[in-house]
Amino acid sequence: MTTKWFVCGVLLISTTAWADSTPKVAPEGLQQLKNLEEEAKKMGPWASEAQVITEAHHIIFEQNGWDSEPDQFMLNLINQVSQVAPWDPAQREQIFFTGVQGRYNLTQDQVELVKREANREAMMVAVKHFKDVVPIALEVARTRVSQKPFTAEQVQKWSHKLEPVMADALQSVERISQKLEKTMNEGQRAQLEEDMKAVLKRHRDVEKMIKSWKAGHWNPMEWGLHHDAVHAAAVSEHLRLLAERDGLVDRKRSKDRPDLASTATDQSAWELYVNWFCNYYKCNDLQRGIANSILKSETKNAVNYLAKYGKEIEMAEALREHAETEANRKKHAARAEQLRKPIGAIFNRLCARLEKQVLTLKQQELVSAEKTAQAQKKAGVKN
Asked: N or C: which end of the chain has fewer CB within 10 A?
């Protein structure tokens, strides 16, 4: 849920509906709604906002793995609704309920049931949370109108207020679906069940996000605002911080000598070893270039070997994992180890080439001294 979804949701409730609602909303509340609608209209042509919202929806669904058929149905439906300005709630409602009717092949009586229950539940939630929801929506709209990016502090504050709204909204959806389910045939019921599973999964995922946002951890990319002009600087800064963090992690890793036993038979870890090697022995740019050429050459040899025996290795490892007896586990483990030995041999050759072809004589002397010290330590010899 982004704040844009939130603003649009609030505006779906017209001031007329509020005026007719029970319990009554105070006159100042109705004025706040009118102010909200006016602020939203100041955002500019709705077509431009709809384009940003549609792209954000696609990004959010993609980066959260909401890619099932029910997910894609909901994505398409909310994007259809988003094309209509929020201050035209009747048109939005028509698009939404037309989509729902087509989804489940509802009869007219079923459609009327959904409309009646949805409007009743929406009003209950909105009235209950009016004092929290509308002020936040106003702040969101005014921030957008002023062409300012949302901040982690704002989202943190909003998340604390909106978490209970989400919980009540989910309960409303569940109540509506339960009432509708009683009128459905077997096929309709099966489709509704699948869609509700997707709804619950998305809700759980958003709950996890809100916990993070409540702790102050938010960035505009989580709301799919990667290409929104207003958030361009904030997105750029977030990417810079990510690169800096990753760089620190890589530098820390490069200081720690990789475990040779596990690295030897895992060609995906060889690049990390070569980086450590070059940093540890303080190689210059020319030496690093030679080292990377050796890495590329020996990795290619390992890839060629795996192309031939990779499936056999995977099979042996899978049989080891699912072996029912210890004897069978040992047998398949030995087979997997035997098949991986040639990869270890390629890695050993890579290490030897690095020492001989990359390092200077002085650096090679350091390698020899280290190996001697390690051998003595292993044998229990003290200097």
From this structure: C
Tokens describing residue 35: 């102010």
Give the span between the Cα atoms of 65 and 87, in whole angstroms. Answer: 31
pLDDT tops 50 at residue 106? yes
Q: Is the pTM of this model over 0.85?
A: no
Q: Which two tokens stand for residue 175?
A: 């109540």
How many angstroms separate the Cα of 372 from the Cα of each of 121, 352, 358?
A: 77, 16, 20
Q: How many whole angstroms separate alpha carbon 276 and alpha carbon 268?
A: 14
- Round to whole Å and give the CA distance between 225 and 220: 5
pLDDT tens by residue, 217-229: 999 999 999 888 8
Q: What is the pLDDT of residues 151-169, one digit of tens each?
A: 999 999 999 998 898 899 8
Closest CA to 358 of 256, 305, 280, 247: 280
Structure tokens at 124: 């209950």
Label residue 246 by pLDDT band (50, 70, 90). low
Q: Is pLDDT at 341 greater than 70 in this prediction?
A: yes
Verify cis geometry, omega within 30 degrees of 0, for the bond prior to 23.
yes
Q: Which residues of 287-325 are buried (b: 16+ CB within 10 A; e: fewer)?
A: bbebbeebbeebbebbeebbeeeeeebeebbebbeeeee
